[in-house]
Amino acid sequence: MAITDRKRNRRRSPRIFGIASRFLLLIAAGLLAMSYLSVLVNPVKAWFLTIFGLLFVPFFLLNLFLLVWALVRRSRAFAIPLIALLPSLWFLGGFVRFGGDETETDDGGISMMSYNVGRFSPQPRRGIPTRSACLDSVASYIMSGDMDIICLQEFYVPYPETVKQEIERHFHGYEPVYYMYSSEMGMYGNVILSRLPVMGKGAVEFDESSNLAIYADILTSEGIRRIYNCHLESYSLSFTALVKSLRRDYHSAIQETGRKMRASITRRPAQVARVLEDIARSPVPSMVCGDLNDSPVSYTYYHLQRGRRDSFRDAGRGMGASYSILWPLLRIDYIFYPGDMRASEHRTVRKHWSDHYPIITRIHFNK
User: How many whole angstroms separate alpha carbon 73 and alpha carbon 192?
Assistant: First the structure.
């Protein structure tokens, strides 16, 4: 009698294990599918889907691991993670590239940088004790690159009357276009610096936000191009402050973090719409760059990149992540341009003067 019971238990155990493993595979596949949905669904209607998009990379790796595990076990359930992973073949190109397209050009092209400088926050551990010292370091690096066009977000100066003076002192030879907000701590905003002639300029302000987009009409060898320098709604989260808050009051910290994330996520679609409306009114072809605070698997990326090319997808190599915290999961800084242009180079430079890394590209006109 005891021997019969043991045999029954052995038959039940594999069956229970098989059901549990399939359930796990389905959950993992569902999480990855939710990240795909974040591209299509307006976050105003389902803000939480953006979180799934931000977690695309770990969800992808989880399904890849489960696919290998199922194949090793020779389980027919390998089809679940395999089907879930198929759409990711397109999305992965927004995060990692193993070889950009080689573009042969006769002209030197336009060299361009986009960089969120993080208000030049001091970096004591890196020997940069003040904002002024950080600005000096960033400016020295930028000037050494001899860029044609530079787009900066969260540019900071302490006093309103010194904005133009500071820009001209640190970036001699560039024509500046800027829009700054005033706060108790000083002035901050977006700046475009150009060595090419600037034919026009403007700003796109967002409701109930200190974020914005500015633009400059730049005269190139192939006519005027409008360049939008965007800084979309950020999460306003400090990881250091979050860890401290979690230690003090876990529940309050979670609630406050959720509130901030929801506010940020639901504001960005309206900001994207404002930029796209302005682009639609532009009399010349437009380029879009800056800190979008969203990943390549997002509603924001899908709409701003649609109809334009992505410099990283064209010419990037390796990991494209531009946000130093949680690297290499987050790529949130971009340079997009019309289809009559191609990038021959894209670099993400791991400099630590900000929580963002500068991205650099060289763009050419198709002949």
Answer: 56
